Amino acid sequence: MSSITLKDVDKAVCIAFATTPERLRGRRRAREFVEPRFAFYHLARTIAGRSFPQIGNYLHRDHTTVIHGLCRSAKLLDQGEERYSPRYIAAVDLLTGPNAMRERRSIRLELAPALPFDLGATG
What residues make up the domain containing 12? Predict the structure, then answer.
């Protein structure tokens, strides 16, 4: 298992997708809410190495929801979806970039404007 925690993934996804932990855990199913969840599922599984039940428990979801979201994330990445892919990559960079270990301990939402795309764009 990786030293990257689910809380680290949570922070990185919230910054990259300009959302909050409350929205990530919420029940709304509009695109702006589910895409960050898909990224969380994918990163928690592939980078943090967590199990489906662990990921689901963290976001108050069933493990089958996590599996579905992981598949949706992979499909969005395969399609090169222009809203999703850059944000996903930004979250990966926050977790695995050259300063990731230092940055993970001090991630702040103020970092979001420094990302190479407009987080305010609604597509």
Answer: 6-106
